[in-house]
Design a protein that fits this description.
26 strands; eight-stranded mixed sheet; Aldehyde Oxidoreductase, domain 3; homodimer; alpha+beta; Aldehyde Oxidoreductase, domain 4; 4 domains; 19 helices; oxidoreductase activity (chains A, B); AldOxase/xan_DH_Mopterin-bd_sf (chains A, B)
Amino acid sequence: MDFSVIGKNYHRQDGLPKAKGTAKYVADLKFDNMLYGKILRSPHAHAKVLSIDITRAKELPGVIGIVTPEDCPETKFNMAGFPPGEDFPLPQDQLILTDHPLYVGDPICAVAAVSERVAEEALQLIDIEYEVLPHVIDRHEAIKDDAVQIKEDGNVISRFPLAWGDVDQAFAEADVIVENRYTTQKAYQCSIEPSSGVVAMWNDMKRLVVYSPTQMPHLVRRILAQALDVRPGDIEVIKPHVGGGFGSRLGVVACEPIAALLSKQTGKPVKIIYTREESLENTEQRHPITYEIKTAAKADGTLIGHDMKAIVDTGAYATHGPSIGILAGLWGLTMFKTPHVRYEGITTSTNTMYNGAYRGYGNPQSVWAVEQQMDLIAEKLNIDPIDLRRKNMLQEGDVWPWSGYPIESCGLPECLDKGEEIIGWKEKRANKQNDGVKKRGLGVATMMHVSGAKPILHELSSAFVKFNEDGTANLLIGSAEIGQGCNTALMQICAEELGINYEDVIVPENVNTDYTMFDIGSHASRQVYSTGHAVKKASAEAKEKLLQVASAMLGVHPNELDAKEGKIFVKKDPEKFVTHADANLEAHFRHDGKQIWGACSENPPGNPPVYAAHFAEVEVDVETGEIKVVNFVAAHDTGVMINPNLVYGQIQGAIQHGLGYSLTEEVQICQETGRVLNPDLVNYKVFTMEDMPDFDIVVVEAAAKSSSHGQKSVGESGLVPTAAAISNAVYDAIGVRITDLPITPEKVLKALGKLTPTV
Amino acid sequence: MDFSVIGKNYHRQDGLPKAKGTAKYVADLKFDNMLYGKILRSPHAHAKVLSIDITRAKELPGVIGIVTPEDCPETKFNMAGFPPGEDFPLPQDQLILTDHPLYVGDPICAVAAVSERVAEEALQLIDIEYEVLPHVIDRHEAIKDDAVQIKEDGNVISRFPLAWGDVDQAFAEADVIVENRYTTQKAYQCSIEPSSGVVAMWNDMKRLVVYSPTQMPHLVRRILAQALDVRPGDIEVIKPHVGGGFGSRLGVVACEPIAALLSKQTGKPVKIIYTREESLENTEQRHPITYEIKTAAKADGTLIGHDMKAIVDTGAYATHGPSIGILAGLWGLTMFKTPHVRYEGITTSTNTMYNGAYRGYGNPQSVWAVEQQMDLIAEKLNIDPIDLRRKNMLQEGDVWPWSGYPIESCGLPECLDKGEEIIGWKEKRANKQNDGVKKRGLGVATMMHVSGAKPILHELSSAFVKFNEDGTANLLIGSAEIGQGCNTALMQICAEELGINYEDVIVPENVNTDYTMFDIGSHASRQVYSTGHAVKKASAEAKEKLLQVASAMLGVHPNELDAKEGKIFVKKDPEKFVTHADANLEAHFRHDGKQIWGACSENPPGNPPVYAAHFAEVEVDVETGEIKVVNFVAAHDTGVMINPNLVYGQIQGAIQHGLGYSLTEEVQICQETGRVLNPDLVNYKVFTMEDMPDFDIVVVEAAAKSSSHGQKSVGESGLVPTAAAISNAVYDAIGVRITDLPITPEKVLKALGKLTPTV
């Protein structure tokens, strides 16, 4: 396609202030008379608060406010959102502060003081009497009938059954059946900016202003309103610069409503900034899931059935638990043509910090299970693993059972071809390196992912575009730039459609819910497809009006005009033109006086799937168990790249995220105490730049038909198949399969029978 | 009319923060690394700068930046706006900093330092060599052929001729001719917040952010762009709370571009706040005008002709001078039916601070002349002055020659009737109090004024309304709340049209040009009529969409529905309803997912005139010359009052303004030096609460047909006829007419022949 702005590597809109350090994050914000809040959290995994005595704390000089469970509205809410009234309501089971803590860290009180130090000190002076109750940390224990019951209505908060075809018949007809159990860990998103912080202040207009580094300003407003028992319109949410999200900023984090309560009580702005430790211990992370899965195939490799059960650990509160219970099945079970499927997704509470969204939202776990099943089948049938995927994958024109939307385009075949070539699949599989100690292997895994949250959510996106008198345009969007570069991509879409230059589109640094229309925000890899759709439509409306003005100026019919790079020209005679500046000056001041604008608020038309195939070459040291990723190829169908550098950047970062998830990262919780054992970046082993292998990225631009310019998505997909590819490669190297994430040297040695039980 | 929100005295939107002191004015703003700017001004009324040496100033610790004329773009501009490309371009004759100062105070350099004190000190260390040039301060001197020539193309910057009918014929046919000369003074708007201040900062998005307490954010952006030679889209203007404007904040005040230059040079935010003295000496004030006017009438009082010349003193630069030259004639000459008119408006430069807009924009001066002529005629013909006005006034259905727009409604007859009654006109005129020393008299004067700037300006107004999911609505407007309460009135219009409650409309405290559509701002008494029109249309669009949603919910045709007070109900069966909250939740999350919004950017349809008659009873002490206003009645036709308290408040304040203009206020300039002699509130005698007489306000609500809810205007009209009414009353009391403003005791005594020449 002939684009003038799309497809080019413009510098990101927020690059310079971020590089220079002038971009303001929530921690940088200061306001007159601002207080600092700290949260007193439960030291017990399960307890009843018998009494709270704040006398001593109140007397500490510099303490201005203290809130306890008595200061909270009685309305329960869900941090993840989707309050009653929406299509997919989630259970509402949380209070802002609790006298019945369900995990180590459950907020009980909070203090606002003149400094963080004073607030910290005051926490020590709050005297709380607890009745410690029995707890359950392990999800497998929690679902047992005789388990400690965490909540009145039982530990299991949802059971999602799914079935199509006749799975029993599939197994009866199968030539090969493979069955296994796969488990995944709790993992931390680890954005550079710790994942929670807020400044909240009630003003004298009777409104609450909240600076929140959120992925969804408009939904935070909505959830916060429910938590505080006010109207969404009473709240103004402002999203400043954000240092990465990856799902950790979906919905409300506990500090927003707590800061709002403290501000209400003190009449002053209250800032709460989580430390890295608080972020690691007390924010929503990836759900640990256990899969029991049995898969049936015919002798030619045709997949005919899956029977799967998942046990999802939601932690102490519901939040995203029920939707993960659904999706942790759907993702994997719908990525290949499979005529017979049975699934049950069981979501259980445990006395741990509640889990939430993390890049992929159940898909990495799901693919971890299903893509290892595929390799088991390939091995049994002696089919090349890549060929097995080729045989079973959904094709363009099929309907994706996950979303019910058509597969508008499918770049997976090309991803498989190119990845196979680049990694040297055939020759390396044929000539394995194996020096006895260091053994090499190759693995592949594929995935499908969404470009939006439809049909689970009504995916409202909006945009408002206004032309200034100089031909520049302000683009107002309620979507959330969280570091991924979506503003830059949306500015390119706007510029392309308006026919102006990238530099002529202006998007505010912050998102403000008072000024922007409703957009459900940055999640489900949706911004560039869904908000992009709204931006395109709003821009098209503005362009149409502008062409009418130019038509009068040039004396030709609007249909004969087009606009590009700041000029509106006669298509047949491009030397005949007016500039956008001319036409907009005319529109403002001479042409019966109307500023030109366009607006759109609607659901996008579809949800085109994206594809990826990851190829890993690993070298396993059978003496130390160490796994070295020697080569890595990520081949992605992202649809048309609006800004290639940003697309590559997303994939690069996701590989790093995915390799950490595969090999090193796990939030460890003590079964006895419920405490996080490694709440810092020394002991939570995030994958660093130094750990990164050589890698290649292949992008296939299989254009989606329903999107504004062929784009699909890239935000989450990059880490979805990584762990399965690594595990498949490890198996290829050493002949043992690790089914529990992360794949640590200990587990390798244990699987090889080399670890003595005493270690 | 049956309104539920309009016509009620809701508390002003910004009342609480202003009352509590939490409202942020520009002087309250603080930013990281912010510097403080001070301006070095010419000490000479006319000079050439021969050299500037900033060496010593640069060495002063704490001085971060210094700008001189060399640092300015070469583009000339006009502080008042209307750059080339618009319908009514004003001469572009100013630079940000000059090496050819034309008045005492003309900015030459500016310093940015870590504190105001250091900046002040640095100004003393800048060494400037001047060649002092001859100057001219008096406008009558300035227009003489042999006057000092201030500018290359002469002192007279515009001559506006106007004529209709045959004025010579009128004087030939006249039964009575009166002729006189009237002069007016330079007067200061005296807003509570001194009239200039700014914080300007270039950010790393390559954009200039300017906090300006302006009456016209979008036009300031435009003018500033021209001054700085950048695009309007490169600038984000934010208007914080403003403590009164009255015209003093029309366009750019010198400090905005100067702060922008300093910020560009230093890379830091720069704040400049004028002191009261700077505000009195160096901001735009009311034009002094001299009128020579001859008026012809028939024996029955029928006015048949005016022949008038005005000499307008624009000061050192053009700014508003040419448009005042036009309007200072048009206002008075078109308020009565007058078949023959000749006018010449001569605008001349002088070596004084340039003048600008002040409530009424030439109308108080014009009425000062014409309404005294009316009394001269009434006296000569022995007609009651009120009856003379009744006889000659324009009627509903006439076209107002000023604007060319029809007189949609005229409440002047009722104003005259009620005022005459309340002041006790007939009985008091018949039985004059006169104890020999203290003599009483009654006077009347009328006026017409506009509800907008059409047709002089393309009066673009805009509004954007979005419904939130709870039925509240955000209203985004680019108009400027400057203390007059227009936001409150516009919120009432929005609430009325949407059918929600006043409290459910949300308007941001600040105006931001990035987020709001183009609106030419608060001047020409235009916001409630013109922006009100846009608010109504945008709201009507949103309401129409909402009724469609409600229609589906209630199963009735949208035509059968209406909305009021937060409910959308079946007109024939009001118990059948959904709330706005219900319908908007449906719209967002269930009804195919669209947020409901409405937008409008356009010129309003007309410009309905407003009327007033002021009645003054004065008591003049013939020994001291003191004038005491004993009673005062202001009778105003404002159209429908959106918020009566705000309308009364406007009139109350304007009476005070008008009485000060009549009796005490004058910015005095030394003819020898060009310096302001009384640049403080001890010596500039603003009319205070203690000086205020008893007064009555009468409001006649003659609804305009073209306005959204019948409203017209009230912002400026309240002070327009005051001075003429006072002068007419003084004449009635003591038989001498003061024709030079203000009417001081000295002038009274002099007119009475009681002032010995030595005093």
